[in-house]
């Protein structure tokens, strides 16, 4: 089977919404996402239209990529945001260099383990390098071992930076980074 990896289009907000809602129902969603299914479900269509437009094909500051199965179903997604040096990130930490920040990673359980996540990450990383970032980073919950293992496998390394969640300072996220020397050609899937 062949999967298509591509950027979302602004008019695909309904499909992006459905995939996000599915992600928020995953058993480890509480470790992976900063919102709940109920919060996302309550948001109006206008929110989803605007959110999708910000990360759609053609944007130079953010991009959401999806993996589409041969039957047309969206089965995985990840987004990358460009963070500019001299700004603050979502948690209020200073951004010291131009970097990509990977967020919103989700792969349906029935397609995990076939190499699709690696190919999706290849595309996300390639998009970020194409925007001239100096590094790509992501934050992962300290107790999300499955995600941490994957990120290590594809070349990300922990920096030692720990980010407490503003909503609950006892909950911490660990920063992982990928530098340009290790960010290309992770794998292939057919």
Find the structural class using helix and strand composition: alpha+beta
Rg, please? 16 Å
Helix count from the secondary structure assignment: 6
Overall residue-averaged pLDDT value: 90
Annotation, overall tally of beta strands = 7
End-to-end separation:
6 Å
Low-confidence stretches: 183-190
Estimate the strand proportion. Answer: 25-35%
Report on the architecture of this protein:
The protein has helices at 13-23, 29-32, 37-41, 45-54, 116-129, 145-153, and strands spanning 4-7, 62-68, 74-83, 99-107, 135-141, 157-165, 168-178. The chain is an alpha+beta fold and 190 residues long. A 7-stranded mixed β-sheet has the order 1-2-3-4-5-7-6, sandwiched between helices. A hairpin with a 5-residue loop joins strand 2 (62-68) and strand 3 (74-83).
Indicate the topology.
Elements: E1 4-7, H1 13-23, H2 29-32, H3 37-41, H4 45-54, E2 62-68, E3 74-83, E4 99-107, H5 116-129, E5 135-141, H6 145-153, E6 157-165, E7 168-178
Parallel strand pairs: 4-5
Antiparallel strand pairs: 1-2, 2-3, 3-4, 5-7, 6-7
Helix pairs in contact: 1-4
Keyword list:
single chain; 190 residues; alpha+beta; seven-stranded mixed beta sheet; 6 helices; 30% strand; globular; disordered C terminus
